[in-house]
Amino acid sequence: MGEVLAYRSERMRQDVTSWIGMVVFLAAWAMTFAALFFVYGAMRVRSPMWPPSGIAMLPLGLPGLNTLVVLLSSAVLHRAVVRVREGRPIRLPAWVGATMGLGLLFLALQIVVWRSMAEQGLLPQTGGYGAVFWTLTLFHALHVVAGLGVLAWVLGQALRGEVTTAKHAALRHAAMFWHFVGTIWVLLFVLVYVA
Amino acid sequence: MSAQHIHPEPTTFLRKYWFSTDHKVIARQFLWLGCFFLAWGGMMAMLIRWQLANPGEPFPLIGQLLMPRSGGIVTPSAYTTLFTMHGLIMIFWGITPVLIGFFGNFCIPLMIGARDMAFPTLNMASFHTMFIASVILLGSFMVPMGSGAAGWTTYPPLSTQVGTPGWGQTIVVIAIFFAGVATIMGGINYVTTVIRLRAPGMGYFQMPLTVWGQWLTAILNVLFVPVLGAAALLLILDRTFGTEFYINGSMATENTGDPILFQHLFWIFGHPEVYILILPAWGIISDLLAFFSRKPAYWYKGTALGMTAVTILSAVVYGHHMFVTGMNPLLGKSFMLLTLIISVPAEVFFLNWLHTMWKGSIRWTVPMAFSVGVVFVFGLGGLTGLFLGTISTDLYLHDTYFVVGHFHLTMAAAAFLGSFAGIYFWFPKVYGRMMSEKIGKWHFWLSFITINAVFCGQLVVGWGGMQRRLYDPSVYTFLEHLGGVNKLISYAAFVLGISQLLFVYNFIASMIRGEKAGDNPWHVGTLEWSVPSPPKHYNFDPIPTVYHGPHEYSNPKVTGKDWVGQWEPPDVIGGPPAGEEKKGEAASGSTQAAE
């Protein structure tokens, strides 16, 4: 192992180190969400009816559309990362900007869903169902906001031309976080909205 | 292989001692923070024990000062706060900073031959998050109606606004959340550092067992503290925003929360947590027993893999804390089986410890004394655990002092004695001076005897039926006859508490004017002893190459000394071609008198 490593550049080795750090970090966050999904599952298993009587059904249309938005944003960002990694020409700021635009669109649509649920009487204080629905979606949205922050930072790097094939760890790790948040949304959509 | 930069040494006071990214400075910060809270939590234990020995009498000397409104008497509400905060402070602010924050930070980079942690800035942030958590925690003592009082487990409904109104409990839960974030930051760092920054030649099975223990702990921390974070977050929401995760209306049949849900989340975290607290101590003493028996650690791989097996199993046994919650009996039996299986790998490394000492050339130093102490108390704690892991006995012993005695023997006494073993051992490397052996021995015997008296006494009163968290056992006729044992426990506890002053004196006096330690005062071969004491800012230059395992002692082919440094080239072993050395391990047992 030592001999192979000796041929790698110092930067590459540092990139691998921070990649492992990122994986461990995401594992920790995955467990946080796993705990929240456990809460959801535990409540649902105990409840004789789901959703409990008197609670409005969650819509499928807008959240479904939002799932597509999330998938598209991840695809856009992934394409950007691949292009940078392979050294093919790309207008990186535009691609990162597009990802962020899709992220903002997701939040906007999510706000519409939240408002309509609140109008139908589903508030965080509405029993276990309201609590778990609002906490899961708000906690996830908070991560989307954090992801947008990280992407804004990468966008700054891209605008200054600092993201190159040899040095794009920040972009790659931001993308990892973004895909992670996207994956959580798909799980959330399937488990909370559809199932 | 110089993947790691040598950063210039900071010059300003603030960068050097407060906002330092040097793992050795951060380690010392954690040590002082941990010791402060160990003293704080220990003082609370003294008050608890006073109340149990002399119910309703004012605490002598400083009672008036601590509780002026009750005239020095521990009131029932003060008592609930005391046992709640004693547990939380000892676990999250005492043992965690010392065993993980101090030893992890100090030992991991030095023992694997790295210049610093993988992410030094994150490391610094970890300490300062912990510091913020500590400030929040201390703040909870100053709000009306006092600090948290729902037991260290903070079970709802006790921990909801119904059971513990006011801001105290909320602030405590917020502080736990911050402490958890700090722990996760540290954990990410430790896991990555061990994977990436081992010196060339150091495979996983050349790592000292201390590093193994820290690494496994870090993995558990990263994976399971987030669950506590989620549980705490939901509890905060319940307390402040009126959500109903853990609240169950008495008339409601659907769309309600569930208090038991918190117990699930808490113990999904909580059971790994007890191993989080003991794994570093296991690792430390696995090394120290070999160091001071002047023998290779018996079946090193068995110990390393045994600890790994316990780590994995610890994730799937949490249900044994909830046997009496109305759990499905079949599920309970599964948890019981898995729990009892843990004793198999634990037995493997326990026997390895005994085998390591067997026929060794034992140096009865203070670190060794404390290590043997850990073996003893952990053995007791482990055996009593069998009664609690078995449903039929647990139904009777649940929530008695038997449980208190059991978990104190394992994660309090063993972690406590293990911390001292490590502190006495690495003190020369941290501060460049030796601690007094004489005071250390006094400290050991006083601590060891009293700690066993305290916790074995608790096993006895628990067996006698005394419930934990009981304010005044003397009012129950069926517990009256236990008053004598309770008094004995309490006086042993007071001696235990007071004898820690010996340690404080020893620590501070040795720091200032202890005998100068050389690079390698204990004659051991792990990498941290190849550099000056205290190590330079960048630890190693150049990064050493590792040729041997961590416990290369009493090899008959080595002349002039009975140890081999991991960094020494292979020809110190007398140069026969590889393959013939296989006999070395078998032969080393019979060369006790190598020195």
Describe, in plain words, how this protein is organized in 3D.
The complex is a heterodimer of chains A (195) and B (595). With 195 residues, chain A is mainly alpha-helical. Chain A has a single domain, classed as Cytochrome c oxidase, subunit III, four-helix bundle (Four Helix Bundle (Hemerythrin (Met), subunit A), Up-down Bundle). In chain A, helix 3 runs antiparallel to helix 4 and helix 3 runs antiparallel to helix 6. The radius of gyration of chain A is 20 Å and the shape is elongated. Chain B is mostly helical. The radius of gyration of chain B is 24 Å and the shape is globular. The longest helix of chain B is centred in the N-terminal third of the chain and has 37 residues. At the A-B interface, helix 1, helix 2 and helix 5 of A face helix 6, helix 7 and helix 8 of B.
Summarize the model shown.
With about 200 residues, chain A is mainly α.
- Structural shape of chain B: globular
Overall number of strands of chain B: 0
Count, helices of chain A: 6
* Structural class based on helices, strands and sheet pairing of chain A: mainly alpha
Which pair of protein chains has the largest interface, and what are the residue counts? Answer: A-B, 45 and 45 residues
Individual helix count of chain B: 17
Alpha-carbon distance between the two ends of chain A: 47 Å
Helix residue percentage of chain A = over 70%
The portion of residues forming beta strands of chain A comes to: under 5%
Total separate domains of chain A? 1
What is the average of the pLDDT values of chain A?
Answer: 90
Element order of chain A: H for helix, E for strand: HHHHHH
Task: Using brief descriptors, characterize the structure shown.
heterodimer; A: 195 residues; mainly alpha; Four Helix Bundle (Hemerythrin (Met), subunit A); elongated; B: 595 residues; Cytochrome C Oxidase, Chain A; 17 helices; 61% helix; globular; disordered C terminus
